[in-house]
Amino acid sequence: MSATGPPGWAGPDDEPYTGPPPTGPYGAPPYVPGALHGVHALPAVGTAAGPVPWPLGPVPLQPGPHTVPPWGPPPGPPWAPPPGMQWQPAPGTPPHDEPVEYLQAMRSRDWRWWRPLLGLLLFALVYLVATVVATAVVFVGGFAAGALPDPTAIDPTDLVDPGLLLLTNVSLIVAIPCVWLAWAAAHGMPIGWSSSVLARLRWRLLAPYTLMTLPTLVAGLLLSVLLGFVVGDWEATGPVDGFGWLLLVVLLTTPLQSAAEEYVFRGYLSQAVAGWVGRPRAGAVVAAVLTAALFSAAHLPPDVWTFLDRFAFGLAASAVVWLTGGLEAAIVLHAVNNVVVFLLAGSLGEGVATDAVPAGTGVLVVLIDLLAMAAYVGLVARTRRRLRPEVRTASYDLRPPSPRGVPGPRPDIGYALVQRREVQHHPWGMG
Fold it and tell me: Can you spell out the DSSP letters for 223-262?
């Protein structure tokens, strides 16, 4: 090249230009997909650029058809368990899809109307056998040890006799495991559902409820006994024979005997009746009235006033069960009542008939007992805010989502409520 540049510039090089061909404005060298710099030569001018062979050789394709679209294969049929296999929730999963009250605890996911009936039949059969066996064992053991008198010398109407009271209490205590067996066999549920909505007995509630009986139930019982002396024909003759043994039997077995009656009447029987009714409020009322009548009749009342007194007691026990979500308050009410009654009867003598309403005082005694039990129920209701007894069960909803257009469950706010998931129907994909 012969042209010269400005003064002071170096002269042009005479060697010819051997670089890449010039491109248009804002152009770039042609790009060859897969080409490596220094390995593959650029395409000649005027030829189309295309892929070049992979320098390491051909890449084998994976076996199988190669016609799958880029978004993946079409969805297959949903997974179904093999024949004979059934899906079961994990251990510890609550048996209820929604929180329910204590009286509705039987209405779990696998509720069937015949389960309570089967449980009652099973309870009656097992209890009949258990009470005969337990009574025979206690009687034979006590007679052999000399603690029980000759069978012909026992008065079946003298409940302050330590031996007879022990036999009676043992024959009733065996009802507790019979109720547990009915829950496990007929319902397939843990036995704790017979106690409370937490599927266990809430021991923390026993002490405060016991203190509540002192100014209410105990005061009413003492007033009724005083009325029997003043208006009735009662007469104190001193402690009965064997009062020490009676005291021991009463303190050790009477609370369990009272708990057994509550597990039967306010527990399994009330839960069965309420489960059949279905509606919580109506079921609670029907169960309370029916079980109170059966409870009173089971005690063989000698007159109508005694029947009404026992009937009112059953209604009060059902009320505190409904208020607290379990049997604790009813067990305390029953146990304190029986312990005080037997101790009064044993300490005052045979001239005091605490198993019946004093003659000529029927209306007054029933009224006093009604006021005492109403006061206890009122205290239990008043202290719910402080003691905070759980009144609904835990739940975990395992039902399939509701079809489109079908309303889901009510938006209740209960203990351990788990809302149902309607993900596929929510516009934002949130349950």
Answer: HHHHHHHHTS------PPTTHHHHHHHHHHHHHHHHHHHH
pLDDT of residue 387: 96
DSSP 8-state assignment for residue 337 = H
Q: Which residues of 247-277 are buried (b: 16+ CB within 10 A; e: fewer)?
A: bebbeebbbebbbbbbbbbbbbbbbbbbbeb
d(CA 314, CA 33): 91
Residues, the chain: 431
Q: What is the DSSP letter of 134?
A: H
Closest CA to 345 of 164, 151, 143: 164
* Own/partner pairs, 361-364, CB within 8 angstroms, 24+ separation: 361/227, 361/228, 361/231, 361/232, 362/303, 362/304, 362/305, 363/305, 364/227, 364/231
Residues 6+ apart with CB under 8 A from 161: 154, 155, 240, 242, 246
For residue range 238-252, list pLDDT tens digits in order: 788 888 989 999 999
Q: Which helix (H) or strand (E) holds 191?
A: none
Q: What is the Cα–Cα distance from 295 to 311, expressed in whole angstroms?
A: 7
Residue 163 binned pLDDT confidence (cut-offs 50, 70, 90): confident
SS3 326: strand
Largest CA distance in the chain: 152
- C-beta neighbour count of 183 within 10 angstroms: 24
pTM over 0.85: no
5: its two tokens: 């540049």
Please state, in angstroms and rounded to a whole number, the distance separating the CA atoms of residues 289 and 295.
10
DSSP state of 421: P
Q: What are phi and psi of 326, to 5 degrees?
A: -175, 180
Task: Give, as one character, the DSSP assignment of residue 15.
Answer: S
Contacts of 211 (CB under 8 A, 6+ apart): none
pLDDT tens figures, 64-96: 555 556 666 667 777 766 777 777 788 888 999
C-alpha distances in Å from residue 241, one per residue of 225, 244, 340, 350, 391: 21, 8, 18, 10, 46
Beta carbons of 261 and 334 less than 8 angstroms apart: yes
The 3-state DSSP class for residue 67 equals: coil
CA dihedral 339, 342, 344, 348 (to 10 degrees): -160
